[in-house]
Amino acid sequence: MSEVLQAEGEKRPVYRRARTAQVILFAMNALMSMGVYSLVGLASYSANIGYGIATLTVGYILTFTRIFDAITDPLMAFVYDRVNTRYGKIRVLVICGWCIEAFALLFLFNFASGKGHGIPIFILLYMLYVVGYTCVNMTVQTIPALLSNDPKQRPMIGVWQAAFQYVVPMALMVVLNVVLLPKFGGKYNQAFLAAACYVCLAVTFLGMVAVCLSVRKIDIPENFAGLTEKREKLKLRDMAEVLAHNNPLKCYIAAAASDKIAQQTSSQAIVSTLMFGIVIGNMSMSTMLGVVSMLPSIIFGFFGAKYAGKHGNKEATVTWAKICLAVTALMIVFLALSDTRRIAVMMSIPMILYLALDLLGNGSKMCVTMANTAFMADIIDYELNRSGKYIPAVVTGTYSLIDKIVSSFSAAIAAGGVAVIGYTTVMPQPGDKLTSSVLWMCIILRYGLSMLGWVCTLIAMHFCKLDKASMVQIQKDIADKRAALAKRNAVGAAGRN
Predict the structure, then answer these.
(1) CA geometry: angle at 374 spanning 300 and 259, to 5°?
(2) What values do phi and psi take at 369, rounded to 5?
(3) CB atoms within 10 A of CB 473
(4) C-alpha Rg value of the chain to the nearest Å
(5) What pLDDT, on a 0 to 100 scale, did the predictor assign at position 293?
(6) What is the residue-wise DSSP string for 391-419?
(7) pLDDT value, residue 306
């Protein structure tokens, strides 16, 4: 359903609006992504128990596959460009990708596990899973731009996604660790891993069906056409050309990748141990905060999406990045000046202040995420208007390549940081002595890098010209170009007849 927006007598673009049911079904892609995420989190156990691979070696293998994952993202753009069937593009790629990753994970965790196979089979199956996951993930990332180009609705799509992305892994954590694990003696063994595989893949199947239902009316050839009469197949130079000349994409990469590496570093288990096991002295607080912050973060996301819809995604990113910067600075001052061990004292002033700052910080980050999700769809439309080519997988794949390569250093940064303060042969453990070096390294890794990331975001957005007014004009230009192309095609067809 579309509506024509009017402002001061000026004709505005005709915006596409997805029905709420479509948006919810699309957001259920979190069943696929988070279901796989929950299962693959057990990959190190599968490698050790089912394939006899040493723990340290598993770390090297997973790092290698992370780089392989980054490389497959832009390559997927060529597959996306060439798949055009009577059954659509998106549904074919999502179903094929799900089948590949389901096949790989079934063998990885069950059929080939515990059979005496070693490193080569594990790596082969894991790489096959990566191919399937990339096929699904890259395709799903292109859907928001197709669902809606209404600037008020695009950020709201991210709210529904975020809600499912919070709820699904928590629900699976309860099912796997509270319900399933005790049935297998309370230990991670081959029987548990096989059962967990079946449960998680059943969840991902439901997500796959939901996504296919959400796009059944928009997964048609004309929605993937560009603005030129002749359609050319995607070439490698097209990807380089996009990165060279799509300025909003370059700004987005600088902003999002800098935030991502900071957030992934702060979420490393080493850093969590420093923060909650040593600085605060209560490891259980980490889990408690995850549960407590879920609903407030979703509420923040809702208001953040409303703000982005009213003011544009660029302005929303800038506004909430500034708030994130301010809250992070307050948290650093608070930790530096307070007795951090009193944060763990129930209902004490330090605990209340810490919880307030933590919830405000997480909520503000959620608002940035809402704007970023919609901003990527804007960049896809910007590229369509700029080059006349509809190549969403190139845009998302180029970002994913750089993002994954950059964020792959997060574990090394965390490990290097704790090594600087003396943890060269052993890992930080809950209950270790709290020293000033531990406190400040924890602050740097958990909050200092985040501040640097927000500063990079603000600088990148300063050079990005894709604001709300620009997007209104871009949507109008796209509509005019499509109308002109349709008219030329009609005239040409009439002349041939």
Answers:
(1) 70
(2) -60, -40
(3) 11
(4) 24
(5) 75
(6) -HHHHHHHHHHHHHHHHTTHHHHHHHHHH
(7) 92
pLDDT for 3 = 38
Distance between CA atoms of residues 325 and 241, nearest Å: 34
Q: Within a 13 Å sphere around the CA of 411, how many CA atoms are in the beta-carbon half? A: 9
Residue whose token pair is 């390559």: 75
Cα–Cα distance for residue pair 189/173, rounded to 1 Å = 17
Q: Mean pLDDT in runs of 10 for the chain (497 residues)?
A: 41 79 94 90 83 76 79 86 87 96 95 86 93 93 91 89 86 85 86 93 96 93 78 76 91 90 83 88 76 80 90 94 96 94 88 92 90 90 91 87 79 83 80 92 94 95 93 92 84 69
- Taking phi over 0 as left and psi of -120 to 50 as alpha, with beta for the rest, 283 belongs to alpha
Q: In which element (H, E) is residue 119 found?
A: helix 119-141
- Max Cα–Cα distance, the chain, nearest Å: 86
Cβ(382)–Cβ(248) below 8 Å: yes
Query: What pLDDT score does 12 carry?
Result: 64
Element of type H or E holding 301? helix 294-311
In the prediction, which pLDDT does 243 show? 85
Alpha carbon separation from 454 to 313, 319, 426, 451 (Å, rounded) = 16, 11, 32, 5
Amino acid code (one letter) for 348: S
pLDDT at 496: 66
Please choose, from the candidates 264, 190, 206, the residue with its C-alpha nearest in 3D space to the C-alpha of residue 42. Answer: 190
* DSSP for 160-200, written as a single string: HHHHHHHHHHHHHHHIIIIIIGGGGTTS--HHHHHHHHHHH
Q: How many residues does the chain have?
A: 497
Q: Tokens for 146, please give them.
A: 């197709």
What SS3 class is residue 88?
Answer: strand
Report the distance separating Cα 212 and Cα 209, nearest Å.
Answer: 5
- Cα–Cα dist 478/294, whole Å: 39
Residue 15 pairs in a beta bridge with 3
Angle value at C-alpha 320, between 315 and 322, nearest 5 degrees:
100
The tokens 């990807």 sit on which residue? 239
d(CA 93, CA 81): 11
Q: Which of 298, 211, 266 is nearest to 417 (CA)?
A: 266
Which distant-in-sequence residues (6+ apart) come within 8 Å of 85 by Cβ? 92
With 0.85 as the threshold, say if the pTM is over it: no
Q: How far apart are CA 295 and CA 167, in angstroms?
A: 10
* Cα 457 to Cα 471: distance, rounded to the nearest angstrom: 20
Interatomic CA distance for residues 367 and 174, integer angstroms? 27
pLDDT the model gives residue 291: 72
